[in-house]
TrEMBL record:
Transmembrane segments: none annotated. The lineage of its organism: Eukaryota, Metazoa, Ecdysozoa, Arthropoda, Hexapoda. This is Endonuclease/exonuclease/phosphatase domain-containing protein. One of its GO terms (molecular function) is catalytic activity. It comes from the Eukaryota. It comes from Macrosiphum euphorbiae (potato aphid). Residues 10-117 form the Endonuclease/exonuclease/phosphatase domain. InterPro entries: Endo/exonu/phosph_ase_sf, Endo/exonuclease/phosphatase.
Length: 187
């Protein structure tokens, strides 16, 4: 196996410049562990922004197609001086590490940008990050369950019928194959 690097870097992307997929490839494809954090000026609801811009769509799509997560504070850290604009989340991190990562907004300073703090825990992540750019397609999930549980009566009249239906539902969800799960996930 080739020896690959662990990279930590600060990022600033000016508001009117583009993020290109090939630039993201250069940043993300040659490192086992990666933390690239800063002001990406990339907006997307996946990381708690109020709107989406071109850079946000590019970054979101690239993260979906590659093996990294985008981590952000859950509250705005940027407060524009012009009150016509809403506070937003601009400071985010691109992360690929087996450690758990949490970003917290340090509110209360007198600046347009609140500082953020990133914490990495020493315990390894055993499940994929929920912030992986993937969503459950609930319509597909509902259809899948409806087909698999089609013999279940809509009118449950006794405790035994309710418990049997709950047991069936639990078994159906618990025993879903990974290929079935992947068909229920979309961007």
């Amino acid at each position: 196996m080739e020896n690959r690097e662990r990279i930590t870097t600060a990022v600033y992307k000016p508001p009117n410049s583009a993020i290109e997929p090939n630039d993201l490839d250069l940043l993300t494809n040659h490192n086992d562990w990666l933390i690239a954090a800063g002001d990406f000026n990339s907006k997307h609801p996946m990381w708690h922004s109020y709107s989406t811009n071109r850079a946000g769509r590019t970054l979101f799509k690239h993260a979906h197609l590659n093996d990294y997560s985008i981590v952000a504070p859950d509250t705005p850290a940027y407060f524009p001086p012009n009150t016509r604009y809403r506070p937003d989340v601009l400071d985010i991190a691109i992360v690929r590490t087996p450690l758990q990562v949490r970003i917290t907004n340090l509110a209360g300073l007198s600046s347009e940008h609140n500082p953020i703090i990133m914490e990495l825990t020493s315990s390894a992540i055993t499940t994929p990050s929920p912030n992986s750019g993937r969503y459950i397609n609930w319509r597909k999930f509902t259809n899948y369950l409806s087909q698999d549980l089609s013999d279940t009566s809509q009118n449950l009249n006794t405790t035994a019928e309710i418990e049997e239906t709950i047991s069936k539902l639990t078994n159906t969800v618990t025993n879903m194959s990974s290929s079935t799960m992947m068909t229920l996930i979309s961007i």
